[in-house]
Amino acid sequence: MYAGFEKALEAAVASGRIAGAVAAVADRDGVTYTREAGVRQAGEPAAMTQDTLFWLASMTKAIVSVAALREVEAGRLSLDGDLSGLLPEFADLKVLEGFGEDGAPRLRPARRSPTLRDLLTHTSGFGYGFLSADLTRWHATTGAADPNGGTRAAHVLPLLHDPGEAWTYGIGIDWAGLAVEAASGQRL
Hints:
By secondary structure, the chain is α+β, with helices and mostly antiparallel strands. It is built from 5 helices and 4 strands; from the N terminus they run αββαββααα. Helix 2 crosses helix 5.
């Protein structure tokens, strides 16, 4: 049943297109098939195993988006409602408008708070420091929490624009995940 897949997987490893992979198929009764191939890291001998950990990075955005939309369907979240009751940090968000001659950040109040729709569509105004020289400079001048620290405080950043006014790839989905947790009462 999976012979074609296994042949393609082995060929991808043998050709060097991928170092390794883990595949699994599950249905409502549980896992029905697993297969590992190759190594965990190119040039290293450790074989790929079923319990190999992978960095998912932005692949989590799809998972969080589905979880958020399930909360919308359940009536616990709204796409266009105010989230500041669930996310108190949203009550006082600022927009970074640049830096003064003294190097201090110029901030002004956001015209409105981001909605769940803004968070899910990257129109919230939240960015990533590694993609924004202004956010990198803001971090350097303010001594704010390390953006890679994994803490909630690290997510409290100035917006790069007002919500709904532009598209900026950033941490909006992280905030959507925090809204899901607050609305559902469960950890993501």
